[in-house]
Design goal:
The complex is a heterodimer of chains A (291) and B (407). Chain A has one domain: ABC transporter involved in vitamin B12 uptake, BtuC (Orthogonal Bundle), CATH 1.10.3470. Helix content of chain A is 74%, strand content 2%. Chain A is built from eleven helices and two strands, in the order H-H-H-H-E-E-H-H-H-H-H-H-H. Chain A has a two-stranded antiparallel sheet. The longest helix of chain A has 32 residues. The relative contact order of chain A is 0.21. Chain B has two domains: 183 residues, Response regulator (Rossmann fold, 3-Layer(aba) Sandwich), CATH 3.40.50.2300; 130 residues, Response regulator (Rossmann fold, 3-Layer(aba) Sandwich), CATH 3.40.50.2300. Helix content of chain B is 43%, strand content 17%. Chain B contains 13 helices and 14 strands. In chain B, strand 8, helix 8 and strand 9 form a beta-alpha-beta unit. Chain B starts with a helix and ends with a strand. The chains are: A mainly alpha (291), B alpha/beta (407).
């Protein structure tokens, strides 16, 4: 095995890993803040990819305008779903939100089947498919775009949470809901912001990965399973844990598939998750709840 | 941390359930079968006698719900078109044909139930089905018990006609015939010598990989790498990098339609430039849709083709079938499955004509004598009751899929 192959595999793994991290961040924030298990997270990812497909590929709207519109729609949809569906189970046992969001996921998936049908679709980005060469490595313009956007969003998210007033309110709610409420923080508003933000991260994942791969109705379920594995790997409700977990899963899968055998690709990733949980039951950064 | 433990449990259980439900049924890819009636569908010059008397019942088992519903619908639409044509032309033995379609859901158990219902309640004279190879294999013991002719119109698993059950006839091609033709062509005509094999990790992919590898090695080629991946896999960067590192000079791919755009786009992105042969017969139109309309990624790709769609515009009876089908089902994209359903009905009708009655044993004996020029090619059954429809090697050239070789 040449060193170049290993480097290329690591690069592919990192690109996918950053997108995994986006998905996992959304989940972990929603769980950490609201104690809601969102099983419909993957459907936000899938719906955003299909919406992007509709706006850009079918209606012919400018690519970047389509991205912005898709994210705007997902913000509004997230707010509506939080207000109408999720709010009723906040504070209830975790099983309630799990079952409720499984139902929501099934509903959203069937809705997508009704609208877009079962055939796989594709989005063709207005970027050149010819890769850049960086030494022995190849990376396409769209992959560079994915890397910049995900790293940027993660960085900005961290800034917002650490530096802004909203971020302080979120962290306060995260640490102690009652105390935060006593201090005058509008808890329902924080919940809505959290859910909308988490869903928007999933939608951004769909917008970025949709054009990289093909679109199918099952894409959300698979992405959500991986995101949950990352959340457990990194430690529940840990912001840095989700990022590190995403990168680890992406690189492990890529190296496993490229150097050993592709048929076992999910076994490598989930094997690492099991190993980590065996030795650190709360995940890599669990127990230190950090937002 | 109690909440966390509960969460872990819930997530684990739900993940297990979701993963389980994601498993795809083992169904053939959308390799489209081919067949159609030899009769040109010209307007009869004189009005044939109206068929009368008790209808001759043909029972068809095909998926009408679930992931394969669309494919199943194509097959039964094709069969219904043939039934309508035959009845309009006076029926068989002066009697009309009635097609009774049951939903087998591409599932073995459901298909057995459907067969029992068709045989005991509807008392059909002939069975047709069941799309998925695993479902077809499950129904074989049932037809053996009831001693009813069973025509298989689309399932491709080779063992279906290798079990020595005299009631089973297959009008479509099978994996062994396909690999014999394509595997030899890859080595001898396309000049593949070191081959990387990419296949989907199910009965179809594993079976095809084994068949093709045997043929390729018999012909003097070498399979240097075989990689299986999940039916829903979208990320092929790692595998393709490995193919590039293996020094392969050709790639054979057995994967579902939804996978195609991912494999070919990622090949271009990592600049892996070797010829590819697809063992599934997909239309360029369908592959293009999954690539957002970008046909350029498929340029040069070789694929197995059946008369539909490969010979549309080339063979007159194929062209006529497609026109008639589109007139009858304008909403339905043309697919090999429709031609398969269509041909199978004509083969059965021809056998009943030869038999002169609808006794199951007489129909079975007559099927052995059928020689019928169908949409899929000449249908005659060999010692194993297996027909040998026309197979094509097609290549994508620009925006067209052209025939470069046929068997």
């Amino acid at each position: 095995m040449s060193g170049n192959l290993v480097l290329q595999l690591i690069l592919s793994g990192l690109i996918i890993g950053t997108a995994y991290a986006l998905m996992a961040l959304g989940l972990t924030i929603i769980y950490g803040m609201m104690h809601v298990v969102n099983m419909a997270h993957g459907e936000f990812y899938m719906l955003a990819a299909y919406l992007m497909f509709t706006l850009y590929s079918i209606l012919g709207i400018n690519f970047f305008v389509s991205i912005v519109l898709t994210l705007l729609v997902s913000l509004i949809a997230g707010a509506l779903i939080e207000r109408v569906v999720i709010r009723s189970v906040i504070g209830a046992p975790i099983v309630n939100s799990t079952l409720l969001t499984i139902g929501l996921a099934i509903f959203l998936k069937q809705l997508a089947l009704l609208i877009w049908g079962p055939m796989p679709q594709g989005i063709r980005v207005p970027f050149s498919p010819i890769p850049y060469r960086i030494g022995p490595l190849l990376i396409t313009p769209w992959q560079v775009f994915i890397l910049f956007v995900t790293v940027g969003v993660i960085f900005i998210s961290q800034l917002v949470i650490q530096k802004t007033k909203l971020g302080v309110a979120m962290r306060a709610t995260f640490q102690d809901r009652e105390a935060a409420a006593l201090a005058g923080i509008n808890i329902p508003r924080i919940y809505m912001v959290t859910f909308v933000y988490g869903s928007a991260l999933a939608a951004l994942g769909g917008v970025l990965l949709g054009p990289l791969f093909s679109l199918s109705l099952g894409m959300g379920s698979l992405a959500a399973i991986k995101a949950w594995a990352i959340v457990l790997l990194g430690g529940l409700a840990s912001f840095p844990g989700a990022i590190i977990g995403g990168l680890i899963l992406g690189v492990t899968e890529s190296l496993g598939a490229g150097l050993l055998s592709a048929g076992w690709v999910d076994a490598y990733g989930f094997g690492v998750v099991i190993l980590v949980l065996l030795f650190k039951p709360h995940g890599l950064l669990g127990g230190r709840r950090v937002l | 941390m109690r909440a966390n433990k509960t969460l872990l449990l819930v997530v684990t259980v739900v993940t297990a359930l979701t993963v389980g439900s994601c498993a795809q049924p083992t169904v053939e890819p959308m390799v489209e079968p081919t067949q159609s009636p030899a009769e040109p569908t010209a307007e009869p010059t004189q009005v044939p006698a109206e068929p009368s008397g008790e209808p001759i019942k043909i029972g068809q088992i095909t998926p009408l719900t679930g992931g394969a519903a669309l494919d199943g619908q194509h097959v039964s639409n094709g069969a219904q078109l043939a039934v309508d044509e035959i009845n309009a032309a006076g029926g068989v033995l002066g009697r009309p044909i009635e097609l009774i379609v049951e939903d087998g859901k591409a599932d073995p158990t459901e298909s057995i139930n459907a067969a029992e219902k068709l045989l005991t309640r509807d008392e059909v004279n002939v069975l047709l089905g069941c799309w998925a190879s695993s479902a077809t294999l499950a129904v074989i013991p049932v037809v053996e018990e009831y001693e009813i002719p069973f025509v298989v119109e689309i399932s491709t698993n080779s063992s279906i006609t290798q079990q020595g059950v005299p009631w089973v006839f297959r009008t479509s091609s099978n994996e062994a015939l396909n690999s014999q033709f394509l595997g030899g062509t890859a080595v001898n005509k396309l000049g593949f010598s070191k081959i990387a094999y990419l296949a989907v990790n199910n009965d179809w992919g594993r079976g095809a990989a084994e068949n093709y590898t045997n043929i390729i090695e018999q012909e003097g080629g070498e399979v240097v790498l075989t990689e299986f991946s999940d039916a829903s896999e979208v990320n092929f960067y790692a595998i393709l990098n490995r193919v590039a590192a293996s020094g392969a000079d050709g790639m054979v791919v057995t994967h579902s339609l939804s996978t195609m755009s991912n494999i070919f786009r990622q090949m271009r992105e990592i600049e892996l430039d070797i010829p590819v042969l697809l063992t599934g017969g997909y239309t360029l139109e369908a592959m293009g849709e999954a690539a957002g309309g970008d046909l350029s990624i498929y340029d040069g790709v070789y694929a197995l083709g059946y008369t539909v769609p490969a010979a549309i515009g080339v063979m007159d009876n194929v062209t006529a079938f497609v026109e008639n089908y589109q007139a009858a089902y304008p909403e339905d994209p043309i697919s090999r499955g429709s031609a398969n359903g269509y041909d199978a009905i004509y083969v059965i009708a021809e056998a009943i004509r030869i038999a002169g009655n609808t006794e199951p044993a007489a129909i079975r004996d007559a099927l052995e004598q059928v020689s019928y020029e169908g949409v899929g090619g000449l249908i005659e059954f060999d010692d194993q009751n297996q027909a040998h429809p026309l197979l094509f090697l097609t290549q994508v050239q620009g925006e067209e899929q052209v025939i470069v070789e046929f068997d």
